[in-house]
Design goal:
The chain has 9 helices and no strands. By secondary structure, it is mainly α. The chain is globular, with a radius of gyration of 27 Å.
């Protein structure tokens, strides 16, 4: 976990050394914005980890409960008792896990992530376009006031349309830093995130397809056993196996829908397309504060859209 929007401490130190004209500005941002960002980022990561653990536990509990429910038809009495106990325990674990991920933890995750992303935006806006001649005291007071606004549920956005607006050209150092760390960095992160989500969605689809194909095959084995008394598999065994596989296929489909991998991947891909257009303008030499503001508003719109999409997915999976 990085302590600053610029990256690890050694990277911040290297940037400060390579760009001495920005050293005082970076010092102010690291002293005021970076600690608030680090705190919100850490809280968001902790809440997300708790949600992920509860989701995994809920899926495992549901799968075990489904399997044990089917196994209750086995003729052996002792086995049936064990299966019934497993159903109770697995169902209780699944219910507890689902309850643990409910509103409070989910809200903490999305709210702290909102604060962290707003503060990251504030950091890069200042790095790209702030007046380097301003006094450190005035700058820090202004930054503190804006952090308070974000923490209280507000936004650092200004009332400017999200388009490439005319403005003052950035210096070469600031343009290079912003283009590399913020614009290209966000594009690369979102592209990797979308590819990872697509990969997981494809894996879940593949597992579900394989299980679905197995259902009629098991049914065919049961049908053969019906007319062949010497078959290695009897009819009840084939029926149990078919029920288990059908339940697993259904569970995988439900898990895939509740995780929303496809929808989140599409969301990130749309934002990457928007940012790529801005990067082409940036590469043409139009490195102005107006373009910085357009990029930041694009990223803030992306995060608010992510927030709503995540809420919709969570609500659908509840």
């Amino acid at each position: 976990m990085s302590s600053s929007p610029l990256g690890p401490a050694d990277q911040v130190a290297a940037i400060r050394t390579d760009h001495p004209d920005l050293a005082a500005l970076i010092d102010d941002l690291e002293a005021v914005v970076a600690p608030a960002y680090e705190e919100a980022d850490a809280k968001a990561i902790a809440a997300q980890s708790k949600l992920d653990r509860s989701r995994r536990l809920a899926l495992i509990g549901a799968a075990v409960a489904a399997l044990a429910s089917v196994l209750q038809v086995v003729p052996n009495h002792d086995f049936r008792i064990g299966a019934q106990i497993a159903v109770i325990l697995a169902g209780a674990v699944s219910a507890a896990a689902i309850n643990a991920r409910r509103e409070r933890v989910f809200r903490r995750w999305t709210e702290q992530r909102r604060i962290a992303e707003e503060l990251r935006s504030l950091y890069f806006r200042e790095l790209a376009a702030a007046d380097v001649e301003a006094s450190s005291g005035e700058r820090r007071l202004s930054l503190t006031a804006r952090i308070d606004v974000v923490s209280d549920g507000g936004t650092t956005d200004v009332a400017r349309p999200a388009a490439v607006a005319p403005g003052d050209a950035l210096g070469e150092d600031r343009a290079a830093l912003y283009g590399r760390l913020r614009l290209s960095g966000q594009i690369n992160w979102m592209r990797d995130k979308a590819e990872g989500l697509r990969t997981w969605a494809d894996r879940l689809d593949g597992v579900q397809t394989g299980l679905t194909v197995a259902i009629p095959l098991l049914g065919g084995i049961g049908l053969l056993a019906e007319f062949n008394e010497g078959a290695a598999v009897d009819v009840p065994q084939a029926a149990i196996a078919s029920a288990i596989v059908a339940g697993a296929a259904t569970a995988i489909g439900a898990a895939s829908a509740s995780l929303g991998h496809e929808r989140l991947a599409a969301h990130y891909e749309r934002t990457v397309a928007d940012l790529e257009r801005y990067r082409r303008v940036w590469a043409s030499g139009t490195t102005t504060d107006g373009l910085v503001e357009a990029v930041e508003q694009c990223l803030m719109r992306e995060h608010r859209s992510w927030h709503q999409l995540t809420e919709d997915i969570e609500r659908a999976g509840s």
